[in-house]
Structure formats: C-alpha cells, structure tokens
Automatic annotation (TrEMBL):
Residues 9-183 form the Spore germination protein N-terminal domain. Residues 203-357 form the Spore germination GerAC-like C-terminal domain. This is Spore germination protein B3. One of its GO terms (biological process) is spore germination. It comes from the Bacteria. Its main location: membrane.
Amino acid sequence: MFASGCTTDMKEIQTLNYATAIGVDYKDGKYYIYTQLVGLASVAKTEGQSAPPQTFVSRAEGKTFIDAFFEVYQTGQERFIWAHITSIVLSEAVLEQGIENVFDGLTRYYEFRLTPWVFATKEPLDEVLTTLGFFDQSALETLLHNPQRIHKQSSIIRPIRLHQLARELFEPAQTTYLPYISIMEDKWQKNQESEPKLALEGAFFIEANSYNGAYTLEQLKGLRWLTPETKRASVLVPNEEDADFLAVIDRFGADISMTEGDTPTFSVVFNTEGLVSNQLDGLDQLKQMEEETSKSIQKEIEELFQLSIETKTDFFNFQHLLYREHPHKWKQFTKNDLLQEGKLENVTVNVKLRHTGAFKNKMVQVED
C-alpha cells in the first residue's frame, strides 16, 4: 500500500491551537495581545461526563499590532488557527490611541474574518477572557461570544460585529459605539461564594477614529429607543423611584428627520407597541398608561440630547443625517453647531399597549 504524498501536511484537529477571542491593549508605545484558547473537550458534545472548562490566555507584545502575534507563536507549541475568533476586546487605551492599526492588521491577514463581535473594556483583558459561564460551561458560552442571546430578551446596548464597525467607523460624520463590558463580582454566587460574570456597563463612543468617551447604561437609557437593532426593552413608569407599572416595549419604529431651512433643526418620532408586564399601583386605565409611558420614553430621549450638549457626543448622529441629506450644507456646520439647545425641536412618542396582563389573554384596543 502506498502512502499519500501529502500526509505530512495533515494535522489532527486536537493538536491545533484554535484562537476564540483576542484582547488588544496599548501601553508605552507597544501593543499587547491577549489570545484566548478554549479546550475542545469542554466544548464538544459527547456522551458521559464532559471535561471541566479549560481556558488558556497568552500575553504578547510588539511595536505594531501584527508584530505582537509573532511573539505568540514563540510559545504556541502548535499551529494557531485564527479563523474561529468570535470576539475582539479592545482596551480604552487602544481607543484613545486610535484603532486604525488594529483594523488594518485584522483585515490584511486572510484567516481573520469580519464577523467577530467587538467590545471595549476598562477591565484587565486577561480577566475578561478567563471569565466563564454557568454550570462549568466554557468561556464560549458567555456574553463575549453570544451577545445577541441576551440582547433579544433585554436590548440595552446593541452588539456590533467587526464589519459593521468598519462601515460606521469610516463613514463620514458618523458616530459609532462599542459595548462596554465589565466584570461583576457580586451579582452571582456559586455554593455561597462569589462568582464573577461578564456584564454590560455602557458604551464607548468613537467618531472619525477619535475616542469620544465612555458612558454608563444609566446615562444612555434614551439610546435604545433610537437604535434599529433594539428588540425588547422595559421602562418603569412614570420613573424608577416612584413606579406605577412596568411597560415592556417589543415593537419599535424611530425616525429622526431634519427640517429645511438655513439652520438645521431635528425632530424624533417614535412609534411603538408593548404591554404592561407588571402593574404595581395607581394607574389602571389603559389610555392613561399609554400616555404616561410615552412621557417616560420622551423624557429619556430628551435627557440623552442634554448629555449630547454637555459632552459634545453626537448620540443622535445629526451630523451624519445632515451629510446624507444635504452634503453641500454639511461642511457649513460643525458638531458644536448642531449640539445646542433648541436643535432637537420636537420629540413625539406614540405608544400602544396591547393588553394589561397575561391573565386576560386578549388584545385590548384603544378607542380614538
């Protein structure tokens, strides 16, 4: 029997290093790369008892982003496969430095795909990459690798893939943002001992490759109503301190328009549907509930615009709207010109609550 001439190039899959996530930091003129490897035995679906989760994280440095990867190879023991990366985590220092070098490296090497989720953090990257899921699941079963699962249940900050980030990052006058993840030490316990878990903390904003700061979920409550990717969101009405009921919004339609004239002003119309998930006290008339829900959402949107004015961060992307609709006027107005009192001329919120609880199990329509 003759042996195939190409067998020497064949590798057993268990002998290869499958990178599943990378973290990127920048300090003192050097890039630091953190590479996450997850043990295949803890991921594979096999009969009998599965192996405990194993997560390896390497740390390497280099003068450029790609240069750091060549240091990873020195201790890799076996060939690295980069095509299975599903998450990229950037430090705040990388955002401050500018992510052009990182993006250039990711798109030049053929094994890197444009589909990984992209996050940013202020936490140590090695700790982020070694935080596990529940019930001895691997690090792949976390927010880092599957953010869309939680986003469908509670849409706070939309997840973003690398190709979407690239499109928004290089689009003129557009402000984009990355989900801000942190490590929560005190929310979960395992056998009465604290169990750290990844959590959404807020978002990091970028405009024209320039870092515009990080903001908390509390500051960004109004952003979810303007985001097309929002699937499901809750709001306490009339406010969190003195709530009468909880409204869950699951159908969205936001439109930001610009008025014609020498000086542009903007309006937001938000049409939505939802249901009353939890009635605490007070209101019991559906029409009044809809009105109060509209006021609560309108307040969150207006507060977000106030934050835009204070921080000069274009959360509403007014600049990009002006660029698309009136490019000849775009260069006449700076961001500061658009983020002023009175520029958000009108906010209209229309809410329809379909029913007031599952017990009735029927649709409730509001008469005109």
